[in-house]
Structures are given as C-alpha cells and as structure tokens.
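Complex record, two chains
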Amino acid sequence: MMMTLVDGEPAAVVPVDDRGLSYGDGVFRTLAMRQGSAELWSRQYAKLTADCLALGLRPPAEAALNADIQRIAAQMPDCALRITVTRGSGGRGYAMPSSVQSRRIVAASTLPDYPASYGEQGIRARFCTLRLATQPKLAGIKHLNRLENVLARAEWQDPEVVEGLLLDADENVIAGTRCNVFIVEQGALVTPDLARCGVAGVTRELVLEAAAMHGIACRVETISRKRLEAADEIFLLNSLVGAWPIAKLEQHTWADFVLTPLVRKWLDAFRNSPY
Amino acid sequence: MMMTLVDGEPAAVVPVDDRGLSYGDGVFRTLAMRQGSAELWSRQYAKLTADCLALGLRPPAEAALNADIQRIAAQMPDCALRITVTRGSGGRGYAMPSSVQSRRIVAASTLPDYPASYGEQGIRARFCTLRLATQPKLAGIKHLNRLENVLARAEWQDPEVVEGLLLDADENVIAGTRCNVFIVEQGALVTPDLARCGVAGVTRELVLEAAAMHGIACRVETISRKRLEAADEIFLLNSLVGAWPIAKLEQHTWADFVLTPLVRKWLDAFRNSPY
C-alpha cells in the first residue's frame, strides 16, 4: 500500500520538469510512523530544515508537514514515511530559477517487517567495493544524489547479507548503504567523522546525545577498516531499524553484545518520549 | 514552449516513485535539433547507451527514441532536446527492483539564443570554489546526480560571467559547470583526463577525433590551474553551444584565437554531415 501527498494534495505524479528528477536537486528524510505518530518528529524536521538550508532550498513550513502527516496517519497509522523536498519546477540549465518554489512530497509505504533476530542476534554484513567520494559541500546532507548508494547496494544479491559497509578512498569506514555505524571499543562508542562524505542521520545524533546523558564515552573519529574489524561490537542504525549489531562481517564474527542492547534501550526510550 | 514525451506519450508528469526522482538513478543527454534533425544523433545515442549500461540500466531502443524525436520534430523542428532515462518506478530502498523497466523522457524546449560574440570574440569565465569529488564509478557518465553542478552554478549571479570552471580536489581543471574544456599549447590541443570526475561529452569526443583526422596534436592530460592560465587559448564546448573561446578568466585575458575558430569549423562540418 502506498499513499502520497504532493504539496499537500493526494497525487501519484510530479511535473516532469521537477529539478529533483532533472538534477537530484533536493533532500529527503525517511522515518517511521507508529500508532499515528511520526517518530522523533522534532528532530526529523530540524534535520530536514538544516539540509534544505545547506542547499539553499526553502524548507517547508512545519505546519504544512504536520497536516500532511496527520492526513496520512488517518489512513496509515503505521507506515514508513519518506519526506522529499525538491527545488520544484525549473527550466533547462543548472542555474536555480529566480523564483524558487520548493515542492514537498510525503510518501507513506508499509513498514518493513524485519526479523527480530536482526536486533537481538545481529545481522550479516559485507564490505562494498565502491569507495565513497569526498565532497565537503554535500557531506552529512541527505540529498537526492544517491547513485553511490544504489551502486553499492547492487554489489550483492545474497539475501542473507543484510547490509554493506562503505569506505572512503582512504579506506576508512563511513557508513552502511542505508545506515550509520558505531563501534564499541573497551566500553566506549566511536562513530565515523562525516565531514567529507556520508549522511549524518537523526538516530546517530540521538546515540551521541544519549551516550553523553548516560555517561558512556562516545567519540567521533576516523575508523579504519582494521580498527572496525578489531572492535568489540559494531552496530548499524537508522530511523526504521533502530540499532542492529553485526554478527558476521565477511570472515569476522561477533556474538557477545553488551553496549548494543543498551543503545537499543536508549532508542526505545527516545521513541516513546513525547519529544 | 515545451513539449514532453514520457515513454512515447505526451505527458507533463512522471510517477512520484520514479527512481530518477528518489535517487537520481538515471542518465541524460542534451542535444540540439535543427530543421527537424537531431544533431549527431548516432553519437548521442551511442553515448546514452554506454551511460545506461555503466549504471546497469536497460537502454531504450533506438527506434523508440527515433519515433519520439520525429514526433517532436513535427511540432518543434528547432529545439533543445533533453533525453532522460531513469530506472523507472521502484519501491522504497536503494536495491534495484527485480523487474527493471527503464523510463524514457524526451523533453523539447526553445533553443537558447546565445550572442554570436560568444563564439567569435569569446566569453568571460570564472573559477568556481566547489571542488569536484572523485568517483571513478561515476566519472564520465552524464548521470542525474548533478548537485555539484547546481551548487557550482549558484556561486555567481553576474550575467556577464557566462561559465564557471571546476577543479578537482588536487586543483586540476576538469570542466565547466555545463561543458568540457580544451586548452591550446604551442599548436596542440589538450583536454583534461575524466577518469575520476567530470562528464565526457559527445562534442569533446568529436574534437579528439577531428584533431586526429586533421593532423593536429591532441592529448588527454592532467591540466593544473596554472597550466590552463598559461595556455595560448582555452575553449569550452557542449552540444548546444559548439565551441566558445574564453576571452577573460578572472584577471587573465585572451584575444587572439587561432585553433578555436578551426575547431568551430570542424564542429560545423560534423553537424552538417549525415552521420
């Protein structure tokens, strides 16, 4: 089942001259709606706004998005939401139109039904061969230029492999194809620096904040492949999956998870809080 | 005036779940139609096909595109054509849908009306501050992930500045925001290597071929900013503009063009040839 609103109205199509289609000129968010409530909405909206501003896009008003979300909640109280903001319709050429009118697209689809074992026993992952490009002007932003993710995801077909890890050209770990990554080292959390590539997701931000709150050391650092492989635990996270530990990464295996279950509890608590 | 065909039918819209919009998952071509004929069509189709294959996209049949072009030619015999091929509609997630059905979009718009002086006396250009990212898996391909070009083009408003030049992170010249670049050094042509970033356009390929045909030395090499600034001539090219010499690049000026007018003649001859 799908339900889509384009600028607040039910629609299955967008104008063919949308700059999101022409150039990937826009940003998006993916989040879960559960029991009619868009999870961590204030943070999601703040990140959407920040990403819009980073590209010189006018962010949609929160009230307009709230109305969209309520309209969807009435029909699909449990769904995956994708909110896309594009630079709207524009003529030929890269120059931004003089009268910029952003377009907002809110699309609801069925929540993915992942096995509970992914969160509890962990998943199988692999390393992708594609190396993420370094572009400080786009790093951290969840923009619509996602061919790297598409190509990386196309590297494997094995359904047992749940996620692929992406390195940069210096062979440092950045993220999964659709998630952020943390490692555990001697009781401390470490997550890669995303100043040069990758997407800085809302769930990553939550973990950084929760760790500080709970007095668990948490650092943003460069993580080489070797360092990741030697970690005590590795976990992947995004707004739909929460946190999944990695049980098997090519020839390496992990079975004892101490901090990952704790992080999962933190995330549950955030989800159930009104903020 | 605009006229658009989506999968062969007149349409002003595309489905909102098109992967071109969701991820920039597709490629495109821009070319001129003059007197009802799509210029250098065989080469344009060959490049479109090569770019599709590089992304694992099924290229549209040439007959289907020919029919689209003829349909447009009947109404707009002189126009700028943009041909876009996307991976079509797909659900949530980066994984390519198992039954891939590419979507083709052929959009015609009015041919831009550039001053003749751009080709004869030259244009004013600048250096952009954005540095192109290095991604060998996407380099050369005219894909839909064009945020770098959009951000680079947004760096200046001055209408006297016609184009911005883009460097890579090593400060080597790669291209303009919407064109390829050649320099002239002691009677030889040199154009940047595009193995790590940039788009290898059809007009660039033509110049390489024509130079070989006419016995003019022509090399693909790394071109530093200093080397470019010291060149005897610089020219920019794409399928719509042909070749424009640079007359002014920040504090540097050029006024004597010897090889650029010759290249313009080569391009005219190619355009008027049946192939």
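Note: The radius of gyration of chain A is 19 Å.
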